[in-house]
Amino acid sequence: MHVIVHYGYKDGSGEYFISVDTDKCNSCGDCVEACPAGVLEMITMMIDLEDELVAAVTEEHRKKIKYSCAPCKPEKRPPCVSACEQEAITHTWKPL
Amino acid sequence: MSKEYWRWPEYRRTVPGKDWKDAKVVSAGVDIGSVSSKTVIMTDGELYAYSIMRTGSSSPDSAQKAMDWALEGTGIKLDDIKYTVGTGYGRVNVPFANRAITEIACHARGANYIWGPTVRTVLDMGGQDCKAIHCDERGKVTAFLMNDKCAAGTGRGMEVFADLLSVSIEEVGSMSLSVEKEPEPVSSTCVVFAKSEAVGLLRKGWPKDMVLAAYCSAMASRISELLEKIKVEKDFVITGGIAKNVGVVKRLEDIIGFKALPMKEGFDPMTAGGLGAALFAKALYERSAQAA
Amino acid sequence: MITAGIDMGAKNVKVVILEDNKILSKGMILGGFDQKASAEKVFNETLQKAGLSRNNIEHVVATGAGKDVAPCANGEISMMGADALGGAFLFPSARTVIDVGAEEGRAVKCDEEGKMLDFVINERCAAGAGTFVEAMSRALEVKLEEMGPLALKAQKAVPMNAQCTIFAESEVVSLIHAKTPKADISRAIHDAIADRIASMTRRLGVQRDVVLVGGVAKNAGFIESLKRALGVDLLVPDEPDFVGALGAALAPMRKNGEK
Question: CB A49 to CB B280 under 8 A?
Fold first, then answer.
């Protein structure tokens, strides 16, 4: 059963999300290391009464994705997406 | 003393006709949001009592106050509660909780409890955030999206407008629906710019109900865009304070093309997170009791 | 050749009258509820100051958010183009021009002739523009013009989590309740918006020299915060509000190939 979590926001200036498919995520942590801005972290999430270690966007950066991720040019293939072998992480980057 | 238009009523309630002492497991869910704190007490997985109040400036205090108030008059003491789960923005600040669980799981579970296994999409509009959740028949989350960056589409945004127009937050919805003809929505999604726009409209002679209609319309539009990413599927329900704003709810239903399930008698839509947390608390307690 | 530039900004209307690279006069007025009428007024006043009448002006170029309603304009230029021209005129070493106005923040990359090469805009979100500082000054109960100097007196850096003006207002109120010194809060406010502007600018690649213009460039606290956030020194003109109008006034001369 796929649990996809979308972190980020859409505001007046566009749509900026990082989405993590927690089923595909194998807790390897490569994306966390690949990110030059400290946007990602591994967290324990309760899924189906079981705790699982999955990638997530830090609380601080959830509100700043437009700013934090801009230097990596997410409309192409940012480092976090390239690092994930499971293809669990995707970027939505749609400035207006 | 000037009236605070944004202030919604805080209250507590005990479900009549139950005795908690008959229950095997008394569990609790404490949902500490940035604007409101909700505590739900359940007996053997059924709603027993709850409280809804404004979150103060200190989260641990808010949690204690919310719990004390929920327990008021019930005779239940903190020790009688077998397991407490904290959720929400301030979940790490519930000192008496056995553990914290993110709102991701709790809201879906709570919605499933209130409305049943047909729920597939939950829209939760909180004080400072807006969540869209997709779940299965067991209330298990399959997709989750939360916007807590931007005030547009949140309770705070609505409060700002209520204050601007000097209309009680509880009347905003019905007043916005009393217009004869639906005006154009305000063009700006940014609450700050929408506010300037509204001032301009008032100056042009627009009556309050029309300005409210224009704003509710813009909010409904924005919320529907958030839901797009999750894809709204029937049955669709709305939780959080905004569920009580008929002005936004009706316009949102018009955009989506179908209605949300109506609010359930006896349940406050703001307690969905707390309910889910209390249900998780019961399940986790029973699992640990089994293992022992 | 005498030219005029009218910058119909979201908050203020600015006018610059130029003769062969020399500024003859300038004027600024609050746009208010009737921006067009305000623009007419300040345009006429600025003409008077230079001892000129409308027929003396060969080109009137409009720019800014409200450029479509600029009175008597016979040309227009984008705000980004105006920023580049104006910035490079004042500082020939300028390669990046950052313009933070009342409702919009922009960063423009330009060449040595003031030609715009690339740009990035942060619009429709009050948190990336002057409105943010204004709203926070109200929450802090400090006059807008005192915000900058107050920030410079800060003892320490306090982080600000909210990225939205509305939420930031609540955060400022909480900080006040927690007895955080107002100077520290003011610095946090300037750091927050500087952070956003810097991130936006980095998308272009920060090429020196970096020039800061727009109304918010008058705020000493913001200048300090932005220098820290970008890690480079900033060139700030004496009257940063007028750079857009100046750029607009320069536009016809660039088109003709004159310099």
Answer: yes
